[in-house]
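Researcher: Structure prediction, please.
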Amino acid sequence: MLEKLKQLNKEIELYDVTDQAFSPFGRVIAGLDVSGITEAAETIRYPDSGSAYLPSVAAFEALPIAAEIRDECFGTLPTQIGYCYGHNRFMNATEWHISSEVNIAVTPVVLILGHVWDLEDNAIDASRFKAFYLPAGAAVEVYATSLHYTPCEVEREGFGCVVALPLGTNTPLEKKAENPLLIRRNKWLISHVENKSLIESGAAAGITGPNVEIRY
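Model: Predicted structure follows.
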């Protein structure tokens, strides 16, 4: 599948998540038994169009893997385990947190990643990003310095990705932040200039260049 994706997406650097090119962005988490959490995720129905995100899923957080993720990846800090799922093929935007994020691919997905140090005046060109293919069952830690957003599907049925973060991340702010990029708790976001609906909702536009699409 990766070779096919590379042929269809020559305008962006596309790597397997095990490639050394991933090391500045995150790490593969070895030894996690993800079977229970992926089975639980597969019971959640995808929307007919678009993507959805649940910051916390009780069924996920009740599994033994939740404690492993909390202790190994977040140093025993309170953690939430949620789900991003549905349909998406485009970069659309990028976000970051002051913390790592753990992703478990329920289906094969592609992550489009950049570096916070490439931001200049809250702007970045799409050419600064790389794409990484995660096969189903892959578990990765995406570092706090990595720009990221909704995973891209590589199958017509859609995508599913478990998302673990410090408790409260991506939940509503108690009051509007002075920084216009801080749109949720521990969530800074910049929209692609072509993503009119996101900009109209209040997101700052800052990604220029093509709105990268993952074709499959």
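Model: The chain has a mean pLDDT of 97.
Researcher: Thanks, that helps.
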